[in-house]
Amino acid sequence: MQLDNNLVPDNVRLIYIDDPQRTNEEYEFTGNEITTSKYTVINFLPKNLFIQFHRVAYIYFLVIAALNQLPPLAVFGRTVSLFPLLFVLTVTAIKDGYEDWRRHRSDRNENNKESLVLQSSKFQSKRWKDIRVGEVVKIRVDETIPCDMVLLATSDPSGVAYIQTMNLDGESNLKTRYARQETSLMSFEGGLTSGVIRCEQPNRNIYEFTANMELNAHKVSLSQSNIILRGCQVKNTEWVVGVVVYAGQETKAMLNSAVSPSKRSRLEQAMNKETIWLSVFLFVLCLVVAIGMCLWLMRHQMQIDTLPYYRKSYLIKGKFPGKPYKYYGIPMETFFAFLSSVIVFQIMIPISLYITMELVRLGQSYFMIEDKHMYDSSTNSRFQCRSLNINEDLGQIRYVFSDKTGTLTENKMEFRRATVFGKHYRNSSMVDGSTKDTETAEPTKPAPLPTKGRKLKSDITVDPHLMRLLHKGLDGSEKISAHEFFLTLAACNTVIPIPSQSTHQGSMGTEIHEDLEAIDYQGESPDEEALVAAACAYGYILFERTSGHIAVDVNGEKLRLDVLGLHEFDSVRKRMSVVIRFPNNDVKVLVKGADTSMLSILSEDPENDDLSLVTQRHLNEYSSEGLRTLVLAARDLKGEELEEWQSMYEDASTSLADRSSKLRQTASLVESNLRLLGATGIEDKLQEGVPETIESLRQAGIKVWVLTGDKQETAISIALSCKLLTADMHQIIVNGTSESECKMLLSEAKAKYGVKCGGFRTQSFKLKKGAESDFVEVLAESKLTNLPPEDDGNRELTMGGPLALIIDGNSLVYILERDLESELFDLATSCRVVLCCRVAPLQKAGIVDLIKSRTDDMTLAIGDGANDVSMIQMADVGVGLCGQEGRQAVMASDFAMGQFRFLKRLLLVHGHWNYQRMGYLVLYNFYRNAVFVFMLFWYILCAAFSTTSALTDWSSVFYSVIYTSVPTIVVGIMDKDLSHKTLLQYPKLYEAGHRQEGYNSYLFWIMMADTIWQSLVLFCVPRFAFKESTIDIWSMGSLWTVAVVILVNIHLAMDIQRWVLYTHISIWGSVAMTYACVVVLDSIPVFPNYGTIYELAKQPTYWFSILLIIVVALLPRFTIKAMHRIFRPSDIQIAREAEILRKRRFFYGSRVFWRSTS
Description:
With 1158 residues, the protein is of the alpha+beta class. Helices cover 44% and strands 17% of the residues.
């Protein structure tokens, strides 16, 4: 056997059919056992710890705990110092262990399933994990495929099988797979099965398969239509038989099971800068303590032997009589003082913040998922949070990149227009009272019922003139073109006809039980389904499809057409063609595709040229109405040209190297000199609420760019319908055919409209700085008025209106791959709207990257199809729609939902809430830990720079883990600065995220200044209050513990905008929990603070000190907040006050009404 000349043996995989021993001995393929778990019993502990310690903060706290184990640095108890880190590691390990146990259980269940495998000429049950490459497997209806198999035979004599790929790609529609005719009638049980399959090495591409099969010295091609993949289910087919080519971890499903890399939120990245500053603070505090210790020791070095804690030996009557102290000298004592200070001040870097943020994001995601306003009843789909790391990024989006088809539109196609042989026809629902087309003025009649008893499930109205033309004798050019036009619609596709019995209604409403077959079509795109359904409505009913032929019922006459070859649609050719042989042995090529790719390959003759001009005019009309267009053409194939194509097609389709490019070359041979038949116009309606959503996003300062593969005219029409484009906009159209032309068009547009290089970013910055005062005032009746939309950088333009850039994919080829990106960036960012037409998937990603790489603005991409995946993954936030084009976009996204209109609520409401909450959460956690650290710092300065603590070890540990953690989480999940109604009514409030009002460096430094003041009050008030008393240091520590917890909780309470039951429970419950823990700790006799709380509680000074601490510490903060709210209120504060006033007016109005009625 000879291998493909274009492949070396290492790049080919040989499978001997029904000979697994020879197959696996020679190549050692993997078995079919799968493993999705990460751990085993042996490696769980080391591997889990290794993964957890990828977080630098954990390594920091491990070092701290290790330092505390050294005798000279044992500031805390050695066990106590390990508690926070062990707690975090243990909780995470338990969670990871439970998740992995579930994976082990799932793997065990999956591997122990059974299927029928050909063994000793009989199909016998065999566990999935024991199946090997090369074995022949039989799968029954509704069973799941255990491995990737090449289809050999099915219960259908034609070799067709129906499968559902929902478990693989999320698509619920049925797909057809075919067994080759050479094997479809092969006998397996009791017969001799042999042959060799040569295929590509395992890869992740589930939409391609390149292989060939050699049977009896005859080579046949195998493609994606001949393989069924692991995880798919057999439907509407009694059984299928296939040979295993990929098993276990090498199956395409398992190769695609890798988790996509997680994204990090912009706020978390900004938080790292402040974390570095906190590290600087920590270093400075420790350095101050170390220098102070050094100076203190140098000053008292002659008295060290007589000072407490520094004498060289214990007292004779002490705990250890005569035992010498370990005094290491001034240099080492200074160094130890620095390290001890690091241990004491360790919570300056908050370890609990990471866990808190994860819990808060989880809670936020729950409320987003449960939001009934983002539930789509038409698809029965709820909102999905597929990534928990970027919730807060939803509140800072500046650019939205949207697909058109299926995202702005419904992607439910309806056949509306057709131009056949230069005459255009329309369906009656497009006709209104003002139409002047006499051809559509007559009442529309339904298509006559075919005599064979077949009908389409959906009702489609037809044009009566076109129907009459089709039912006349085919003797003229126009009639022949009409016949071939609808034959192309019925034959040039990959749609699956699914027949089912139906009951026909009689004229009096009675049921007539006839042998009436209802046909439902399922295709890989709604476009194809709509075109085949239109052909069916006009009497060209596709009712059977196999790998070798199709059957079409033409007005009651069955027509069997042999499929000699199918050139599927690809993004390079932008067309599809099928070569068919008619019963009279005539061979025709039927082609459909985009006008840009079709009109250039028509034959050059006067009749075709005239017809092309008329058809182009009709296409422009259809596009201006927002219809999607396709051009149809055909040609005859005869003699040597047919033989040449068949030879090239057979070689290309069986090739294992560069098969797609070879097939493309083969297609170009027959896709030329075509005879134009006509064109179609399909309507794709706008989704509900799209214009309102786009307008709200625009008012919120968000730019919406549409990236579509449709024609420019169609895209412009849809953009006008959804109010993306408005009449007052100046449209800049860039349709270049060369690099020089594109450069000229961009330069002319920039010069005409005064766009300067880099000018947009400067203007944007200026607008941001002045935007705070741009909000409307609260009127006397306490109502907010609608705000004008943001100028988007156009305020300085003098041309009388905003700009809209419209650019095609051909121009982007020259711009994105040359040195014109900066020119496009300057022009595009100066426009309010950008509309990119005829763009390829990678060009969509390139446009997103253009903004993402050149600005700091947050980007969001939203789409519903596989062609949107690259764009979704490129953007900072990716949103997938559960649409008509499968679930590839959903599976690649960070968030998923059912309708585009939900984007308004997702960003303006949940995005705003999440950003404001998370920004405050981070700042509050920094404050909460820093105020505790500074309080300890002031004490150390007054304790001879020693690192002894007035607080017990457990109080220090419990502070951030138990005492103050719950209120932070509850507020981070449930607090709302504004109601959802206000946020939706006034979209401009969303710009608070653009201005980074929730979290910025200014707020951080204000917070640190306030922290230093509050910590000074915390330390000084008790010290002076008990100056003349005899209480010990442990009593003072107990007071500080309670006071700092009450202070930070009151601080938090001052900032809460929305009080609910859970908020009250968490805030006041935290204070109660602190007192309970202090009482318990002070009741343990072995602790040095035994009984202190009982003595302190008896003294009025204790309670007065706590009250004085709260008032004095928070007074500056309260004053500044009040002054800021009165004299420089933010947009959110104004809206908040308006909400409160409306509620009060409603409340008092209701009371007055109640009194008057009673």
